[in-house]
Specification:
This protein is mainly alpha-helical. It is built from 9 helices and 8 strands. The chain is 34% helix and 6% strand. A hairpin with a 5-residue loop joins strand 1 and strand 2. This is DNA repair protein rad14.
Amino acid sequence: MDKPATPPREAATTTTIPRRPQSPPTPEITRRIEENRLRAKAIREQRDAELRASDVQQTDGSTTTAAPAGKKRPYGSISRAEVPATNRDARTSPAKEGEGLQPVSRKFTKYVDYNFSAMTDTKGGFLSIEDDPWNKSMSAGVPGKPEAEQKPANMTAAEWERLQLIKKLQRNKSGPFEPGLSVLADENTRKRCRECKTVEIDFVWEEVFGCAVCNGCKQKFPEKYSLLTKTECKEDYLLTDPELRDPELLPHLSKPNPHKSHWHDMMLFLRYQVEEYAINQKWGSAEALDAEFEKREQDKKRRKEAKFKEKLLDLKRKTRTEAFRRNNAKGDSNGSGSGPGKAARFGDAIGDRGKHAHEWGRTVENAEGMTVKTCLTCGSQVEVMEF
């Protein structure tokens, strides 16, 4: 049985209808088309003129000129002198506090530099309290020194800075807290400079040191009004810690330590007050102070030399023992040791007489200052300490 086959597709019979040629527009249609084009052009030009003459108000209060459609916008429409608060542009002036972006906190302005070559190796991968004093979780603060004040939560940064500035001015007695000078004040009670008799004195020095002096005289007479540290007072004037810590004996001015902020405050003393106490009261005269200084320097040098001699004698003792062993080993090679092929040791027999027993003589002091005693048989010496 033959399979059914798909019959071939019949060719489509299409009849091509010839298009009629388009008739040209009549003069009436041509006139209407031209009128409509001119009317639309006039309306477009009128609208462009109205847009150029009028300003469009913006939401931020500024005005800008709208450009016609299809043309480039003018520069004034995209560049504004007053940038809105929502624009995060770094070129603009910083926003006021409470508006827009907040300023960077002051605690992030300090850069902490760690010298890893001078740090203590804790073998645990962490920093010690001495190496990381800024870590508040590890360090509880310096004993005897109050903790730094912290900004209250209900106070803004500007208010906190203003409060710190006021406290600094009060401490330095400057600005609005500087004591006033009045012409009505009594001349008998008015404080004047010790040198130039001016009334414009340093009130901080007058309060701390009890010394009325102006800033010009402090720079003019540094041999009298310069400040000394506690270390300089101890080394140059031979003063002790109890004397320097007595405010009635020697008043001092406290300032933050410039080397590290977590160290104790510096104690600054007035030079002429230190010299007056050290020379006139404690030592009696400058010659006595110089003599005491020379005496202490000689004692220091003597202790240093004694320590050096002690180390040198220890080295000599060790060297003498090694030399004795080498000599015994050398004698053993000549047949006088304890046996052939065996290294001689301290206390072995000399020759063939068996174990040697030392016979010590009297204890004497040699030329080196050492107390020694000598064996009468072998001649070896040992150091003896007598009490």
